[in-house]
């Protein structure tokens, strides 16, 4: 049997919820346009943070293991929602940005590929409902 994660999410007031996570907690709230106060994170955007975080951890781990010299690393995600309810992300572009002098581009690309194709479970979940496009951009200084 696989691992089970449990999060407990409690209604605070109006459109706000407090949610636990195995390593912390966060506030979820709707935007003022949707009747909330805008004081918390948005659920759909949290999914994008989870995707970036999951893949980012994989890549950071490989950068460390391969002893690659990377000054900075950033993941930008652009996601398109469907027009009809229930609205969900149907097109997602994940951009991996690497910054440094003399970046080991082939090795970094391999790290991205391994995360995308093998290790990142959140990426696999996204592939079940969205067209996912991957881009790797090297910023050599």
TrEMBL record:
<protein>
    <submittedName>
        <fullName>OsmC family protein</fullName>
    </submittedName>
</protein>
<dbReference type="InterPro" id="IPR003718">
    <property type="entry name" value="OsmC/Ohr_fam"/>
</dbReference>
<dbReference type="InterPro" id="IPR036102">
    <property type="entry name" value="OsmC/Ohrsf"/>
</dbReference>
<dbReference type="Pfam" id="PF02566">
    <property type="entry name" value="OsmC"/>
</dbReference>
<dbReference type="InterPro" id="IPR015946">
    <property type="entry name" value="KH_dom-like_a/b"/>
</dbReference>
């Amino acid at each position: 049997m696989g691992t089970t994660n449990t999060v407990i999410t409690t209604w605070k007031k109006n459109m706000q919820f407090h949610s636990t996570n195995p390593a912390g907690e966060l506030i979820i709230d709707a935007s003022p346009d949707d009747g909330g106060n805008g004081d918390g994170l948005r659920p759909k955007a949290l999914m994008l943070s989870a995707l970036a975080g999951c893949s980012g951890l994989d890549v950071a781990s490989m950068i460390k293991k391969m002893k690659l010299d990377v000054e900075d690393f950033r993941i930008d995600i652009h996601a398109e929602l469907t027009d009809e309810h229930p609205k969900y992300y149907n097109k997602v572009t994940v951009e991996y940005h690497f910054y440094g002098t003399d970046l080991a581009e082939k090795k970094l690309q391999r790290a991205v590929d391994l995360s995308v194709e093998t290790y990142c479970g959140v990426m696999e979940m996204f592939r079940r409902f969205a067209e996912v496009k991957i881009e790797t951009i090297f910023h050599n200084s």
